[in-house]
Amino acid sequence: MVKLFRFIPLPLAYACMVPVIPFFMLFDRRGYKASYSFFRKRIGRGPLHAFFSVYANEFRLGQVVVDRFAVYAGRSFTLQNDEMPVFNRLAEAEPGFVQLGSHTGNFELVGYTFHSIKKMGTLVFSGETETVMQQRAAVFARSNIEMVPVSDDLSHLFRLNEILRDGGIVTMPGDRVFGSQKTFSCPFFGEPATFPAGPYILAAQRSVAMVAVFVMKEGVRRYRVFVRQLGENLDPAQPSRVRAESMAREFAACLESVVRQYPTQWFNFYDFWK
Amino acid sequence: MSIEEKIKNFLVDEMEIDSAKISPDARLKEDLGIDSLEVVDTVVFVEREFGFKMKSEDFKDIKTFGEFVDYITEKVG
User: Fold this and answer.
1) Confidence (pTM)
2) Collapsing DSSP states into helix, strand and coil, what is residue A212?
3) Which of residues 13-42 of B touch A (CB under 8 A)?
4) Within an 8 Å CB–CB cutoff, is residue B47 touching chain A?
5) ipTM
6) Alpha-carbon torsion (A127, A129, A130, A135), positive or negative
7) Contacts of B53 in chain A (CB under 8 A)
8) Do A58 and A39 meet the contact criterion of CB atoms below 8 Å apart?
9) Do A157 and B39 touch (CB under 8 A)?
């Protein structure tokens, strides 16, 4: 099936989703309510505008998934990345660093775009289909990227720690609590929201740099990349937990700023503030 | 400072664990509340303080504070 995406024009693939999305809106009530509430409460849109925004939100998600398959099939996208010097400076330095993604835009494209001589370990969750995992592994293998699956025996944490210690890049989501239930409460769209403590503590404990990366869809074959370094002005003498929490707050502020620019590319379909 | 004291200080200062709870029989997970995140913290601490790398397999057999101290003592010794 993936091979099909080598030939199908992307606008045609997107068009196929148009009649399907209302069914998602109708039957995935939890997702619908979360998305509708996001546009009403956080973005401040009226009821009708919010309803159509949910449709646009689902449509954007579909486009992003189609684009991923298109990449697996060997197609390329244009990424406008004016902020690459931030990434390149860190990638050329000796120490490793932590790169944070989020459930917005198409973060996975980072793996196919940011090439570095550094080893990159990216945390992946079990539960995705074998096809997706195989295709992703094949593409990542060409870019010096190792997928590190989350496992019950915590071996993923040891592996990520090793990659970081050896000067590599560790990529993980900065907006989703997994494994450890330790969290930081950060202001986000005017209310406290829960962010995972793990990624920030990992960076603070090892005193390595941390960047937030957002890859946002702007056109059929065009994305814009945002790279923000976190914790640049923190006092290294502060306890690691204090620095970690500051970085989590900075990440939340960056995420809010990007999501305000691209609200239909917010793909956390649950009550993020609960 | 003994190995036991160094580890205890780390648990109290960095992880904010109540020192009264720390005893040789205290279970790391159930009694001291050390979860996966703190495991990574601990690994970094061990590397920095005692100069060797811990493996994930090593951690599987360590259940209590006393066993952890014994493990470090054995490795350092």
Assistant:
1) 0.87
2) strand
3) 14, 35-41
4) yes
5) 0.71
6) negative
7) 162
8) no
9) yes
Distance from first CA to last CA of chain B, Å, rounded? Answer: 15
CB contact A152 to B (< 8 Å)? no
CA of B32 vs chain A CAs: smallest distance (Å): 14
User: Under 8 Å CB-to-CB from A63, ≥6 apart: which residues?
Assistant: A14, A17, A217
Is B35 one of the catalytic residues?
A: yes
Domain boundaries, chain A: 9-72, 78-265
Domains in chain B, ordered, with CATH? 3-76 (1.10.1200.10)
Name B27's bridge partners. Answer: B64
Residues A182-217 have pLDDT tens digits of 899 999 999 999 999 888 988 988 889 999 999 999
Find tokens 């990992």 and name the residue. Answer: A202
Please indicate if any CB of chain B lies within 8 Å of the CB of A207.
no
Q: Is B25 helix (H, G, I), strand (E, B) or coil?
A: coil
Mean pLDDT by 10 residues, chain B (77 residues): 89 86 91 81 86 81 90 87
Residue A180 and residue A234: Cα distance in Å, rounded?
25
Burial class (CB in 10 A: 0-12, 13-18, 19+), A125: exposed
Q: Give first-to-last CA distance, chain A, whole Å.
A: 38
Q: Which of A117, A248, A61 is nearest to A172 (CA)?
A: A248
Question: CA of A198: which chain B residue's CA is closest?
Answer: B37
Measured between alpha carbons, how far is A258 from A250 in angstroms, rounded to an integer?
A: 12
